[in-house]
Amino acid sequence: MHRRQFLIGATALVAVTALAGCTTGGMSVFTAEYGSVKDAGYQLPQIPIAKVPRKYHRQIVKYDTAEKAGTIIVDTNEKFLYYVMPEGRAMRYGIGVGREGFEWSGTARIAMKREWPTWTPPAEMIRRQPELAKWRGGQPGGLQNPLGARALYLFNARGDTGYRLHGTPEWNSIGHAMSSGCIRLINQDIIDLYNRAENGAKVIVV
């Protein structure tokens, strides 16, 4: 399936109805949660979080939406991912999104969750960047793996969309449009989201 075909027909409906939410300033900001972390034998480095705009630090915000708790809503324009919580709140994370030509929107479900996942570049990416051919069979998980410490795999009725919510070693990409379409989070944030999100959870990307 071509990425640009991902629920194009549903995009307009999603844009109007799915992100019926608004947010206010952080109720709790987790700026202190970006220190070095030992995880599954890997030592994640400390993030120089002072260099990341405060609005992209993980925080609980007031968030009004008709979507039920456990839903994930991705606002690609504002570069925020919201994990909907009870009582009109959400955990908000700063994200990096697809660069020009790789934007997308639609709805999906989390079908799989993986720790320190293997990354396999798609054929079209290898054509654009032939140096990635060495990973045609998959790049093992690790500190330099583009998927980072965790990945949540997005599927729809047609199967694997090819998109992921995943970590990244490139913390300075948060707040920017730099990816090939996937939604990337700081590794410390994707670990937090991974622990909250359930298989089958609804994901809305606007």
TrEMBL record:
- Got a GO cellular component term for this one? extracellular region
- By its UniProt entry, which Pfam families does this protein fall under? YkuD (PF03734)
Swiss-Prot/TrEMBL keywords: Cell shape, Cell wall biogenesis/degradation, Glycosyltransferase, Hydrolase, Peptidoglycan synthesis, Signal, Transferase
Annotated L,D-TPase catalytic domain residues: 70-206
Task: List the active site.
Answer: H166 (proton donor/acceptor), C182 (nucleophile)
- A Gene Ontology BP annotation from the UniProt entry: peptidoglycan-protein cross-linking
Q: Tell me where on the tree of life, at the top rank, the source sits.
A: Bacteria
Task: Give GO MF terms, alphabetically.
Answer: glycosyltransferase activity; peptidoglycan L,D-transpeptidase activity
Entry keyword annotation includes Cytoplasm = no
Which InterPro entries does UniProt cross-reference here? Answer: LD-transpeptidase (IPR050979), LD_TPept_cat_dom (IPR005490), Transpep_catalytic_dom (IPR038063)
Signal peptide annotation? 1-20
Give, as in the UniProt entry, the pathway in which the protein acts.
Cell wall biogenesis; peptidoglycan biosynthesis
Keyword Protease applies: no
**Family (UniProt):** Belongs to the YkuD family.
Q: What is this protein called?
A: L,D-transpeptidase
Q: Taxonomic classification, please?
A: Bacteria, Pseudomonadati, Pseudomonadota, Alphaproteobacteria, Hyphomicrobiales
